[in-house]
Amino acid sequence: MRIAFLILSAMIILFSGGCGGMLNNASERAYKNGLKNQPYDAVIIPGFPYNGDKWDMILQMRIHWAHYLYTKGYTKNIIFSGAAVATPYIESKVMAEYAHALGVPRERIFTEEKAQHSTENVYYSYRMAKGLGFSKIALATDPVQTTYMQRFIKRYELPVGLLPVIVDTLSVLNLYEPKTNTENCKQENFVKLSDKENFFKRFRGTMGKNIVWYEEDLKQSKFRRKYKDRMIPSGAAGH
């Protein structure tokens, strides 16, 4: 398993333009800051495609990290987020099955099944958490994704903390793949997002351009003006 994390470290360096050390240091600082506010009511874990055979290394990392945070008592609940985007498997449901197989009680696991992009993972899960009565919420994902989701959270002033994956911590854990049944996680009549939307439309989604906002979450008037056509006004029916 140490070899897998050497590969992961190489991936971090690749995706961060050769600044893997700085990326890891930034994650460690964010993690230490995030721990100051634990325990959280819930942590958000973004989804990742599942091929129906075995989990990808990114799935392995995110799910085991969620399990680690729960067993350490740093979070009371876990929200897995993600629709069926690249494969017929609903990403959040697959992750929930694996987390339960690792030992997280089902009553502590929630799935947000609408998000198709990382920004949507964060915002729609945040809204779900609020609806469940959770007030202390954090995002827990890999260092690469944390870097650009941190910018999104900061830009919109969302009250979401950060508990990014610490690779050195995971490298000493038993990151086994538990046996589980994911056949009930498939979406009927599935069509890949890439077959429904062209690259530019998908990129807009990645940048958060498809999010339907709640007015109360847009602290700055410039955003309320900008997103008035896809914003749910405060006090609206069913708000």
Strand content: 5-15%
Q: Stretches where pLDDT falls below 50 for ≥5 residues?
A: 1-7, 9-18
Q: Strand order within the widest sheet?
A: 3-2-1-4-5
* Mean pLDDT across every amino acid position: 89
Q: Look at the helices and sheets and give the structural class.
A: alpha/beta
| N-end to C-end Cα span | 46 Å
Question: What's the overall geometry?
Answer: globular
Order of helices and strands: HHEHEHEHEHEHHHEHE
* DSSP helix fraction: 40-55%
Q: Rounded to an integer, what's the Rg over CA atoms?
A: 18 Å
Count, helices: 10
Sheet of most strands: 5 strands, parallel
Textual characterization of the structure:
The protein is of the alpha/beta class and 239 residues long. Helices cover 44% and strands 10% of the residues. Helix 2 (20-35) crosses helix 6 (143-155) and helix 3 crosses helix 4. Residues 1-7 and 9-18 have low confidence and may be disordered.
Keywords:
239 residues; five-stranded parallel sheet; disordered N terminus
Outline the secondary-structure elements:
Layout lengths: L1 H14 L4 H16 L6 E5 L10 H15 L6 E4 L9 H12 L6 E4 L5 H14 L5 E3 L3 H13 L4 E3 L4 H4 L22 H4 L2 H8 L6 E2 L6 H6 L4 E2 L7
Parallel strand pairs: 1-2, 1-4, 2-3, 4-5, 6-7
Helix pairs in contact: 2-6, 3-4
Short description:
The chain is an alpha/beta fold and 239 residues long.
